[in-house]
Amino acid sequence: MMNFDAIAFDLDGTLVDSAPDIAHALNAGLDEVRLQRFDLARVRGWIGDGPDALIARAMNAQDLDAVSTALLTPRVRAAFDRATLAAPLQHGQVYDGIAELLAQLKPHRPLAVVTNKPTRLARAVLEAAGLLDCFATVHGADTKAQRKPSPLLLENAADQLGVSTGRLLMVGDSILDLRAAHAAGAQAALVQWGYGHLTVPETLDAWRVATPAQLAARLHLQSAP
Fold first, then answer.
1. Which tens digit of pLDDT belongs to each residue from 76-110?
2. What is the number of structural domains in the chain?
3. Whether residue 39 sits in one domain with residue 108
């Protein structure tokens, strides 16, 4: 079927359009400490590096001194997590064609999620989306050192699946996914329906796919003579 032993997917901007829920959770955190809210367009541009980086960007956009920022940030993060767990995918949705793609792939290869969202939050989103059972393992960035573009999450996922990273395909929407894949020695596929693909240089080696159906076709073609 394909020249890969396993496939790893990013979550936000790849499997699900979760930006509305991320914006809701961020604003819930900012409301907790009575700070300025941000609209969806602004928040969408901050997605990709995980909640700590997202919140840091939101805090840097406030008129705060360093001491206030340090004191308030943990409260914002705690409220962000509560809001995410309470409504993981209330405002967003699974991208069209993703459920069908995963249903096609699951019988043939083990699938993983590799995301900069912490594992607990990632699993909650996947469960709300009805996708959790599609994946053999979910690897979130529970520490700063694990965040993509570090290859650690991909390497851990490959180890758990019992495959070589050289036989792994990483599917994502941002340059972080591509850099993590390259650092791990994996192949990368860049989806063009997410949040981060416009910032990826054309010179960076990766498949570029416009739809989940196109990715399915590309994977099928890998076995063609």
1. 999 999 999 999 999 999 999 999 999 999 999 99
2. 2
3. no
Same-domain pairing of 137 and 215:
yes
Last residue in a domain, options 71, 86, 101: 86
SS3 109: coil
For residues 63 and 119, membership in a common domain is answered with no
Q: Hunting for tokens 């709300």 — which residue is that? A: 128
49 is catalytic: no
Q: Which residue has the tokens 């997590």?
A: 81
What's the pTM value of the predicted model, to 2 decimals?
Answer: 0.93
Token digits for 180? 């993590």
Q: Closest by alpha carbon to 196, among 14, 21, 41, 60?
A: 14
**Position 1 in a domain:** no
Instruction: Clarify whether residues 109 and 212 are in a common domain.
Output: yes
* Active-site residue, selected from the candidate residues 5, 10, 31, 173: 10
Q: Contact at 8 Å (CB) between 171 and 214?
A: no
Cα angle 18, 128, 27; round to 5: 40
Nearest in space to 13 (alpha carbons), one of 49, 58, 59: 49
Question: What DSSP element (H or E) covers 31?
Answer: helix 19-32
Are 53 and 149 in contact by the 8 Å Cβ rule? The answer is no
b/e string for 26-46 if b means 16 or more Cβ within 10 A? bbbbbebbebeebeeeebbeb
